[in-house]
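Propose amino acids for all 276 sites.
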């Protein structure tokens, strides 16, 4: 349950410690950083992170098994009960400075995967950076967000929140900052990385929470090639392209919530097409 934060801690960027040497390129470019935040900042955020019930009550979404509950920066900044450290954190990690840090890391990989990126959206170094649900594409080129996310407790039977998929093609990047609760003894809930199997593959389109398209692929068409463990104070970040296939492993029945922060950068138009 969020509450007023008394102690003052220095708010850091999640990418402050990242270097190009951290980039892994198998099966697609990404970084995995352990302890990107100082212990003091991490604990200040972890002890005041909203629960699924808190978020669900405020956004009007009932609690069901292993569902996703998003508390976006617009909600956090407008919520008088959220700790100030969260307000400072989402502001810093959805800012023009954060975008420049991402670009310093991944620009070459992004262009290599999608050579006509700057034809479609303009020079990456000149994009006007705004915040999602605060600014619009009338005055900005990319809209960032830093969202507190809960996957609710798993009841009934083990399940995966989402299997193999590619993030929406109008997103420039995706990021996941894991904040596993110290009492969470559930198995699973890890990030799985995939590559396409040889031969045909097929994506499905279904309505998401916000009415956009989502691109899921039948597991028969992909091969798992790596796993990044769901843990405390761990950042995964990557530029989005058609090869950036990932999903969440099956999580055991558990009363514990799966906690993380989602980082996104939305563009007005898609950067690539997927054969559906």
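Proposal:
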């Amino acid at each position: 349950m969020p509450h007023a934060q008394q102690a003052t801690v220095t708010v850091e960027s999640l990418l402050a410690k990242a270097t190009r040497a951290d980039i892994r390129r198998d099966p697609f470019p990404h970084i995995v950083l352990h302890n990107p935040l100082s212990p003091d900042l991490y604990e200040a955020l972890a002890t005041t992170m909203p629960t699924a019930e808190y978020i669900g009550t405020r956004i009007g979404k009932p609690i069901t098994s292993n569902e996703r509950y998003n508390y976006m920066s617009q909600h956090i900044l407008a919520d008088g009960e959220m700790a100030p450290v969260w307000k400072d954190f989402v502001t810093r990690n959805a800012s023009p400075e954060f975008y420049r840090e991402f670009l310093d890391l991944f620009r070459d990989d992004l262009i290599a995967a999608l050579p006509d990126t700057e034809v479609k959206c303009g020079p990456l170094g000149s994009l006007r950076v705004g915040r999602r649900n605060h600014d619009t594409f009338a005055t900005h080129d990319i809209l960032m967000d830093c969202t507190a996310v809960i996957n609710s407790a798993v009841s009934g039977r083990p399940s995966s929140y989402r299997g193999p998929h590619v993030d929406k093609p109008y997103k420039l990047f995706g990021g996941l900052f894991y904040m596993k609760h110290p009492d969470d003894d559930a198995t699973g809930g890890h990030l799985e990385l995939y590559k396409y199997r040889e031969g045909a593959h097929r994506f499905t389109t279904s309505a998401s929470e916000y009415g956009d398209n989502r691109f899921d692929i039948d597991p028969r068409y992909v091969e798992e090639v790596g796993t990044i463990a769901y843990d405390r104070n761990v950042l995964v970040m990557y530029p989005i392209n058609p090869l950036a296939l990932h999903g969440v492993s099956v999580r055991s029945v558990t009363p514990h919530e799966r906690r993380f922060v989602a980082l996104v950068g939305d563009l007005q138009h898609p950067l690539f097409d997927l054969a559906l």
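The longest helix spans residues 96-113. Residues 72 and 147 are 4 Å apart (CA to CA).
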